[in-house]
Amino acid sequence: MKLLEVNNLKKHFSVNDSFLANLLNKNSQVHAVNGVSFSINKGETLSLVGESGCGKSTIGRTILGLYEPTEGEISYCGKKISQMSKKEKFGLKEKMQMIFQDPFSSLNPRQKVKDIIKEPIRSHDIVSREEEKDYILNLLDKVGVDGSYLNRYPHQFSGGQRQRIGIARSLSMEPDFIVADEPISALDVSIQAQILNLLMDLQDEFDLTFLFIAHDLSVVKHISDRVAIMYLGKIFEIGDKKDIFAEPIHPYTKALFNSIPELTTTTKEKFSVLSGDVPDPIQLPQGCYFHSRCKYAEEICLKEKPELKEVNGRKVACHQL
Amino acid sequence: MKDLIYYFKRDKMVIIATIILTLIILSSIFANLIAPHNPYDLASVSLMDSMKPPIWMKDGLDKFLLGSDLQGRGILSTILYGTRISLLVGFSAVILGGTIGVTLGMIAGYFGGKIDSIVMRMADIQLSFPTMLIAITVMAFLGRGILKLIVVIGLATWVTYARTARGSTLSIKNSEYVEAAKLIGINNTKILIRHILPNILTPIIVIATVQIAQVIMLEATLSFLGIGVPLTEPSLGLMISDGYKRLLSGKWWLVVFPGGFLVMIVLSINIIGDWLRDVLNPKLK
Fold first, then answer.
1. If you classify domain B91-232+262-285 with CATH, what class do you get?
2. Is B180's CB within 8 Å of A166's CB?
């Protein structure tokens, strides 16, 4: 069953919003997301992978309504979000939540732990006032934070514990769908595995669906069911994790996988780095966005944008297949 | 809070300033109990007692410790009552200006766009005139009065708070905890009150402390110029203004005592303000 469907999503940001720029029609835009379509089934984890600035986080935030989409549709349980009433949108907040990247800025430094978790519970009347305390304690226990810390402030915790508190806040409204925006990249390596396992345990227990945003491929391999590789606001390859990790097809996916340093004697020969830079997202290139760095690029790649097409059980956007 | 007490104990200047300020505030609040007589009570004032020097000088009277003024009011009593008015104006004007400024600044910073432009252009326009000039002009039209003075000074000083509040709001409105609050679905008013306001309060408190001293000075200046508080309820500024005219005729006590009192108030508030700024600034720790 499809829980979430994203159809041809585009999100552009204005660079210069000043009065004069509008007047002179010189308003340039950053093309963060350029027509992305995918769907997520209930209970699965889809990972969005790509280098920084490719629009992964923007997609997550647009789905959750932090940004208005420039174009395209997002549907939750078959219902278009743009056509929902205000009340329905408020109800949807319970169903869709987010886990943030930086545990040091995602908790209000002036709120106690209990107030941080109480806020969503009170706003949405999840439980009655009498049950509230037990509910919070139970939640903290689930994410592995001691119940005696209820009256502490965020600065009294370590990064890992803060991230656990943030996760407890996201779970407090019993959501079905969670966008995890690089939830472990700001943590110590020793804590990363703990948080990752916690997320997977919670997924089993609460039947959660994850949109997992990451750039660390080993993490993606560990947690995902399906993977989408992104470049400059477009999906280049999307399919089952096993298929893609076993045999990457798109030239960019190959290059990305090759860039993981491996501890073998042959590392030096196999380790290849892409030359050049990601094109300017303000002035999008013609044709395939990757053509400037692709060693297989031909005439057609400069002129036409490749569409996603079915190849070996997954979808790939490349002219060369 | 613990830190605050720790730093407080280490700084002798601040301890002294706090003790002086507390004494001044208490004595002005309980002026009617402490003061030898009530300078507002015309029945107890006699013109016969006019211009008496302090008690230790020749012609000094027992009932006027620090001498008396033209109307025969005791300087000490008038200072105690006058300080009450000066402090009342200082605190009220800062609370009024601070509330207006912080509210507008937060709204401008948080919502941005047209609201931001309108509020900040208003602030720029007001800032291009000296605060003193605005206060003098408006008070000249309205006439004397304590309430008028509070409102005018409050409205003339909101810009300082608004600019600081806007800047701080801008720096945290895109933080992830504000996004988290949006994802919960709580409305903008609650976000502003619960998440933005507590986190921008530190610089505001520092500014407000220093502003109290400045407002007391502003009030004294306006009263000195004869457009502040009414003659019947003299503040420190009005007393200095009165005394200054007679300074050259040797009646120094009319101006030295209220002047010294004003200096003590302003100095102690400034010392405390400076200390607060240092202690509350995490970068200096």
1. mainly alpha
2. yes
